[in-house]
Amino acid sequence: MGVPRRQTLCDKFDSLDDEIRRSFQHFPKLFNDFPAEVSLIHLFSKIETAQVKALYCGIVKLHRVNAQLAANALDNWEITRPGFRDKYKSVFNKELKKEVHERLLHAEKARDNIVHGKQVKDGAVRQALFDVFEYATLFSAQVKSDAGFTPFGKLTGFKGRASSLDKATSRWVLMGMKFL
């Protein structure tokens, strides 16, 4: 396909699922008013937010952990790329699919270079933006398949009516998943 053009990225954004598009709502203005690097950094912050939301909801919904303890555990956990994949497996008892994980590799490299003050060609940034959009779609679909919710959407009612474990038991579950 080659490096996506600016219009291709705008069209890709417009074709995203409503929940993902809402999560990335500032992209069009950032992309039009600032260098593309700004958009990429912003989208990565939204990706990491969705990753943490996925883990939180998985812990609370699938393992019935006390919501406040789960939130505190995730607030104190420092997200890393391999750490996220490990925690995903721990929470959902499934690996993050290779196609999902690999979709973000090029974009992560571009993001790292930008953050560390290195030169990144505009084409590489545009490709990274496209890859982030693809990753968001694939990641959302996998979480929906694995747990029945999407990490980019409104999470009202994601847990259902199931009661949570007491705080002491919740702590043990979080320790077992190595969040505490």
Index terms:
180 residues, mainly alpha, 10 helices, 69% helix, elongated
Folded structure, characterized:
This is RiboL-PSP-HEPN domain-containing protein. It comes from Thetidibacter halocola. This protein is an all-alpha fold and 180 residues long. It has one domain. The protein has helices at 6-15, 18-23, 27-33, 36-62, 67-76, 81-92, 98-103, 105-115, 122-147, 167-176. The longest helix has 27 residues, at 36-62. The radius of gyration is 17 Å and the shape is elongated. It starts with 5 loop residues before the first helix and ends with a helix. The model has no long low-confidence stretch (mean pLDDT 95).
In percent, how helical is the residue content?
55-70%
Total domain modules:
1
Q: Report the radius of gyration as a whole number of Å.
A: 17 Å
Mean pLDDT: 95
Number of helical runs? 10
Question: What's the helix-strand series?
Answer: HHHHHHHHHH
Parts with pLDDT < 50 across at least 5 consecutive residues: none
Biggest beta sheet summary: none
User: Structural class of the helices, strands and pairings?
Assistant: mainly alpha
- What form results from the Cα inertia axes? elongated
Beta-strand content estimate: under 5%
What oligomeric arrangement do these chains adopt? Answer: single chain
Q: How many runs of DSSP E, i.e. beta strands?
A: 0
The separation of the N and C termini measures 45 Å
